[in-house]
Amino acid sequence: MSDLYNSCFLCPRRCGADRRISRGFCGESDQIRICRAALHMWEEPCISGSEGSGTVFFTGCQLRCIFCQNSDIALSHAGLEISEERLIEIFFELAAQGANNINLVTPSHFTPTVISAIDRAKSRGFTLPFVWNSSGYESIETLELLRGRIDIFLPDFKYFSSDLANSFSRAPDYFEKASLAVKKMLDIVGEPKFDDRGIMKKGVIVRHLVLPAHTDDSMKVIKYLFDTFGHSIYVSIMNQYTPMPSVSAYKDLSRRLTTYEYEKVVNFAADLGIKNGFIQSRGTARDSFIPAFDYTGVLKSI
Ligand code: SF4
């Protein structure tokens, strides 16, 4: 499977880069790098629960949005290189800390290594669900490799408009690729299933971050998701947009979302009849909501 790095077509960018010796649009070689591996309490309640979600933050990203909320790791070259064996150890360490699941954040460009680590962990008795927490800009061929390995998909669905997707992520085909990806994810894991504590065991939760000044696009995304997938998926409407220094040239993105804008989108979703959904409370749009990418849990403690 590692030969998929030799001429990389893992995502819709289809760079064809030989990642043994160079890097593609995602900025990463064939060696996995991560910035943090720790319990995370601020995912959706059915993912974090009270014990936390065992998040592993991978470095690099195939989408690279200009407003990226995790730009320290997605856009820069921060991150420590680790072996596949160390990744497996991290899965077991997070489980020992009480994690409800292993939450792989932006893992798509490392798919060959990650699925090998999942297979090897499972062969050693690992039983927690694996969550694929991604940008939604995915190749369906790569997603097919996750069948039987990933239990929960947690993709973003960022844009309806091709112009916005082009301006902010240089991906004018984002809507087409993300809509095919969500269909594939639902095909792989099926309808949502929960344990008796309300923790998700299988399913798809699609996240949409409402951007300031672009509520019309948000409503088109939400209508598309509900018209297409109904109650087969959950929709998580997020208000935590935080302007990063990289958006200073974009007037529309240089402020936080207003309460009015967020409530307009949430009310629209409620009026459509969406019941399987999550919303965020006020006060989540803070820099402190962004985890510290300080290499917690990355290296083995001695
Ligand atoms: S995963 Fe990276 S190198 Fe591979 S096609 Fe996508 S952006 Fe290019």
CATH level 3 topology: TIM Barrel
Percent helix, as a range, is 25-40%
Structural class by secondary-structure content: alpha/beta
Q: Hetero groups bound?
A: iron/sulfur cluster
DSSP summary, beta strand count: 10
Shape: globular
What is the oligomer described by this structure?
Answer: single chain
Would you identify the CATH H-level superfamily?
A: Aldolase class I
Order of helices and strands, N to C? EHEHEHEHEHEHHEEHEHE
Number of helices: 9
Q: Based on the coordinates given, report the CATH architecture.
A: Alpha-Beta Barrel
Radius of gyration: 18 Å
Mean pLDDT: 93
Summarize the structure.
With about 300 residues, the chain is of the alpha/beta class.
Describe the structure in your own words.
- The protein is 30% helix and 15% strand.
- The mean pLDDT is 93.
- Strands 1, 2, 3, 4, 5, 6, 7, 8, 9 and 10 form a ten-stranded mixed β-sheet that branches.
- The longest helix is centred in the middle third of the chain and has 16 residues, at 174-189.
- It has one domain (26-289): Aldolase class I (TIM Barrel, Alpha-Beta Barrel).
- It is globular and about 50 Å long.
- It is of the alpha/beta class.
- The chain binds iron/sulfur cluster.
- Residues 8-11, 13-15, 17, 19, 24-26, 62, 109 line the site of iron/sulfur cluster.
